[in-house]
């Protein structure tokens, strides 16, 4: 029949979305209330109504290539206003999880990190790899000619058991693998998005690539989109604390890792830092911010009485990992200043294990949102879909909804 459209629903995808937090998907009856109340939904490409029906029909390929699923920040204004309780915010979160699994490289790691029964394996891998690195430490040091002696200016160094060259090489190698995995996923996503956008829209109406990247960086760093939330306004504070705490700790870690090559470091590099070192203070402030952010997120999930958002295993797994990495870091610091041996080294080992779990598994957890959301925003800037309604339009939408 001319003009007929044949739809072949991906039943497995529908089930996966519903199991990942989108269990109320089938309640949607396309009233478009969600698109009306969303302050981030652009006028020329509103969401999430279209994404809801595509999910109901099992159109996986179209959703995987849709940048709009990443423009949603799950503020759940749409879920609280939905007359049928379909919770579009949770459905889009479940779709994003499927997108992370879809673009992950290798994909089996994404599946492992999504299954509670894989916890022993997920934690066992970093523990085993760190143990192997410690066992091979002396032999490798002998081959490479590294000295285990620390300068006398360093009091109670960690280098006797965890030398800098070993940790730098260990985490540097896996960081490189993480970077490759993220780039592979982002390139796959970018190519998929280009297939669903007409060629005349890919380079014409939007901003240049550099301009789009700069605009996206400012938007992400400022957490501007979170300020549009009304149902979950407190998420701005929790996410901002977590984000900036993570950035602060990353900056300190980069400073330590590049110590041998850093032209700003003059004289002997002293690590661990003294308590009043600017870098130690930055690390402690960053750790405190990360701790506050995680605790606020956990509080919001435990005391949520609106049922606007469903917490899944993936959410709790990431929060637990970040929280444990932060707490073991502070615990290690306390044991270090108390000069407790070998307790501080044992605590440091556990801390490194959770740091590995948080960072090396980044492409397969919700932390991957940093890469995919930024990519979607850049792409939207490029084609002229900026993924945010004007303040006037957003205000009028919310006013009309209240009056209705």
Beta content = under 5%
List the secondary-structure elements in sequence, H or E.
HHHHHHHHHHHHHHHHHH
> What is the terminal-to-terminal distance?
42 Å
Q: What is Rg?
A: 24 Å
What percent of the residues sit in helical stretches (DSSP H or I)?
Answer: 55-70%
- What's the overall geometry? elongated
Query: Structural class given helices, strands, pairing?
Result: mainly alpha
> How many domains?
2
Oligomer: single chain
How would you describe this structure to a colleague?
With 404 residues, this protein is mainly alpha-helical. The protein has two domains: 11-105 and 389-403, no CATH class; 117-383, no CATH class. The chain has helices at 11-19, 33-37, 49-57, 60-64, 68-71, 77-81, 88-103, 107-112, 119-144, 164-195, 199-202, 209-222, 235-257, 278-302, 313-337, 343-360, 369-383, 391-403. The radius of gyration is 24 Å and the shape is elongated. The two termini are 42 Å apart. Mean pLDDT is 82; it is low at 151-155 and 389-404.
Concise summary:
This protein is mostly helical and 404 residues long. The protein is 63% helix and 0% strand.
